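Local shape tokens

___
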Amino acid sequence: MHVLVNGVRLFFDVEGAQFVPDGPAMQEKPILLLLHGGPGADHSTLRPAYSALADIAQIIYLDHRGNGRSEDGPGKAGTLRSGATT
């Protein structure tokens, strides 16, 4: 998924539900916003370690501007680690 921030499309992915059933009501889980290291990296290196937390929290993985699947600037695609552009 993408979100537009100041004219730049940033890629993010969400793992886990924000709300879970708790009897007749819905309980909100905490949200973890995970930011990868860099430059030149993307969120994929974080998934193996943090996916296990999706049962207790909603996890949002964000690719920084110009990294992974996020744009570098308006209309300028980021570069994947493999060197392919998005």
